[in-house]
Amino acid sequence: MTETLSQIPDGTADADDLARDALAVLQPGFHGTSAPEWLLRRLAEGLGSVALFARNIESPEQLAALTAQLRAVRPEVLIAADEEGGDVTRLEARTGSSFPGNLALGAVDDTALTRDVAAELGRRLAACGVNLNWAPSADVNSDPGNPVIGVRSFGSEPLLVARHTAAYVEGLQSAGVAACTKHFPGHGDTSVDSHHALPKVDVDPDTLHSRELVPFRAALAAGSKAVMSAHILVPALDPDRPGTLSPAVLTGLLRDELGYDGLIVTDGIEMRAIADTYGVERGTVMAIAAGADAICVGGGLADEETVVALRDAIVDAVRAGELPRGRLADAAARVRALAAWTTGAAGSAAGTAPDPGIGLTAARRALRVTRTEEYVPIAEAPYVAAFTPVANIAVGAETPWGVAAELDRLLPGTVTGTFRQGDALTANVLRSAANRRIVAVVRDVHRHPWMAEALGALLAARPDTAVVEMGVPQAPPSGALHIATHGAARVCGRAAAEVIVGKDADA
What we know:
Blueprint: H1 15-24, E1 26-27, H2 37-45, E2 49-52, H3 60-73, E3 78-81, H4 102-108, H5 111-128, E4 132-133, H6 158-174, E5 178-184, H7 205-221, E6 226-229, H8 247-257, E7 263-266, H9 272-275, H10 280-290, E8 295-296, H11 304-319, H12 325-348, H13 358-366, E9 368-371, E10 383-387, H14 404-410, E11 415-419, H15 425-433, E12 438-442, H16 449-461, E13 466-469, E14 481-484, H17 490-500
Parallel strand pairs: 1-8, 2-3, 3-4, 4-5, 5-6, 6-7, 10-11, 10-12, 12-13, 13-14
Antiparallel strand pairs: 9-14
Helix pairs in contact: 1-11, 1-12, 4-13, 5-6, 6-7, 10-11, 13-17, 14-17, 15-16
């Protein structure tokens, strides 16, 4: 579709302004590592934001060129990315992150460290031209079986999560990058991934206020410039609509009760929790009517047709009286206000001192090591058995994880094998390892019975095995050496490898 704004049927006196506001509230994605012609044209017509994903990023230099290309058309555009560090990285999706994620930072529980990590991450984003980060996750991971939050949370204790959420917001925004605290009103107590279906948080209002909302209050007090809504049903707030579409959640609770006046961004509107029930067009209109200011779309639907369809759905809803014109104008104004803030903040943060080693420092401090007296550090190239669950969509399957690459750097000739549910795990590992020492790498072993069973059988056969848990360390330590990294970032793997070989952490 290539029609211009002037070709939209003129049903109101401010047809162009209406369409421009409708474009302003969209945060679409696209395919490729340079901007397609259609995206540049829509920016010129008023598109307020652009969303970047791993598919758009190859290197810092390429990303800087891409964001410069976008700003050449619209200097005040918001350029957003989902860069949490740790398991969820877009800047380093092909290599693994230089920063540990939230759970590692929560395990250290040093808010100055969290602030410094977020500041360095923000500095790198700003250097590439990204000015809105869909982070941090302020979810309290109260359900250890949560399939989508897990290591993305600072922990399971509300006050700990709150102080680190605030520190992260402060650090990120000190670099001139707007924080987007998520997933409001809290995605931690869920056993369903909202990418696939609609989760429910069925708790009473007192629990909600004393647990889920505590970190969000801290984020707002720290000045978080944006908040991302969750596609979750919270019957205590609204028995019928998920948070993203609920006036009670977005306007009644977040705006009126908590006093928040910044930008409200939806989680991906094409996620099945919304799309399967409401559809992306109706969901978009309902979200804005409920109080959202910006619609994230593009993780799955990343084309011009989607942008046009959502723009037209918004325009049609205003003309039909389903969406108040003032509500849309208010949403668009908040998008533009945040863009103006990032422009000013970028200049004031230009002197932020780089600290390129802060991520590895944090990863080393986050390790929790349990060893038997019999454990002997591995001195020759080992066999690494990676027990690999299916990656959730937020993490993505393209990002490497584990310790094999880092062990190979320290012990050249390290061999690795990947094992999944359904494989003859123990027999295959033992046969492949032969006489080599074994390092078993697991991720959330407490959530995967097949993994726990295979690990137990392996340890019975080879009790000198070292175990590295790179997810939530809920299961008891096992193995001659057990290392809980609290995340699967590249730096977490490096820190674990150092311990496996007995290398001094400062070497």
